[in-house]
Amino acid sequence: MTHRLAIYDMDRTVTFSGTYTGFLIHMARAMAPWRLALLPCVGLLMLAYVVKLITRQRLKELNQALMIGFNVERARLMPHVETYADKVLATNVRQGAVAQIAQDRADGYRLVLATASYRLYVEPIARRLGFDAVIATDHLSQDLRYVRAKIAGENCYDTGKLRMIKAWMAAEAIDRGQAHIRAYSDHVSDAPMLEFADIPFASNPHKKLAKLAAARGWTRVDWT
User: Fold this and answer.
1) C or N: which end of the chain has fewer Cβ atoms within 10 Å?
2) Is Hydrolase tagged as a keyword (predicted)?
């Protein structure tokens, strides 16, 4: 039996722009507007990441603590998470990506969204787009009453994303030798995932990925 998988990155691949900062602002505005005054601190944390004072994972944890809180009851979060997913679908999705998702579904592929963004808000977006599975960054309390500003395991990014894809496939009893994989991404950090695929697509690629795709002979697609 051959398992057909179509694995998509989310931010700037399926969407026009990143979703994480918009998520933080949406949640702060909905739950505690006073936290918007802390946005300059988010900028300082980004600078600290750029100069390698903190890791990408720690950056995400601290930003969430600032804009949402260290420990927030899931029941309070979820109505606003759902409205954010509605907003993303209405304003930030590439119609070319939607068409390709529909084509992959029609071709018999299982649709997988693999992203560094938090599962907390990715799953409602994925559900609206018709994805079958989500591989994403998890919170430490992903299945508990409270959502903590702490990542469980590793950030679903770069080689970490590929490790998480392989772990998901193992959990689903999908042997790589019996799988045919299409993969889509806009960013060179997903080169490990694209190398892993049978048919890699550089989707709306930034400069480094466009150059790598040309060198490797990967198909480039530019979705509106």
Assistant:
1) N
2) yes
Helices 20-31 and 39-50, axial angle in degrees (round to 10) = 150
What is d(CA 104, CA 98) in angstroms, rounded to the nearest whole number?
A: 10
Question: Would you say the pTM of this structure is higher than 0.70?
Answer: yes
- Domain annotation covers residue 187: yes
Average pLDDT, the chain: 95
Q: For the segment 1-56, what is each residue's pLDDT rounded down to a tens digit?
A: 689 999 999 999 999 999 999 999 999 999 999 999 999 999 999 999 999 999 99
Q: Is the pLDDT of residue 141 over 90?
A: no
Domains in the chain, number: 1
CATH code (residue 149): 3.40.50.1000
Q: Which stretches of the chain are DSSP H helices?
A: 20-31, 39-50, 56-67, 74-91, 95-106, 119-129, 159-171, 191-196, 207-216
Average pLDDT of the segment spanning 85-106:
98
Look at residue 223 and tell me if it is in a domain.
Answer: no
Residue 55 included in any domain: yes
Look up residue 51 and give its amino acid: V
Helical axes 56-67 vs 39-50, angle rounded to 10°? 170
